[in-house]
Design the sequence.
């Protein structure tokens, strides 16, 4: 796994989605990484190249709808998704876990100790974001 697989201090989760390419091709069965905390998402890095090639060919052939699964095979899709186990945030239905908040609080102390004001402020912003997500959840 790479740094791209992490967000909000935890591993993102893998799931299949249908998305539009920049050229307007609707692509079904695209394995995406999604952060259950902030809902940021992107294509699983392993399959980014396959996705780009597929949409490139579809755009030049004027194909409007396609499926990444049909193009590269079920096996590759399942292998990519299998790298990302189910997330505790999904199982518990929580957007932010207590250990994420603990981790940020620890880092805030480190930043304070290092006198790194910029980092300190970034961490405070992250903490504020986490608490606003929790309020949305409890409403
Ligand atoms: Zn996130």
Sequence:
């Amino acid at each position: 796994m790479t740094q791209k697989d992490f967000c909000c201090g935890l591993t993102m989760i893998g799931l299949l989605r249908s998305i539009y390419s920049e050229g307007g091709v609707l692509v079904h069965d695209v394995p995406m990484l999604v952060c259950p905390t902030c809902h940021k998402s992107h294509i699983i890095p392993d399959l980014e190249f396959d996705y780009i090639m597929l949409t490139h060919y579809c755009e030049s052939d004027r194909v409007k709808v396609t499926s990444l699964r049909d193009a590269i095979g079920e096996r590759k899709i399942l292998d990519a998704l299998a790298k990302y186990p189910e997330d505790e945030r999904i199982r518990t239905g929580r957007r932010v876990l207590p250990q994420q908040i603990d981790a940020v609080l620890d880092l805030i102390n480190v930043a304070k100790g290092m006198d790194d004001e910029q980092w300190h402020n970034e961490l405070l912003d992250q903490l504020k974001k986490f608490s606003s997500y929790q309020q949305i959840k409890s409403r």
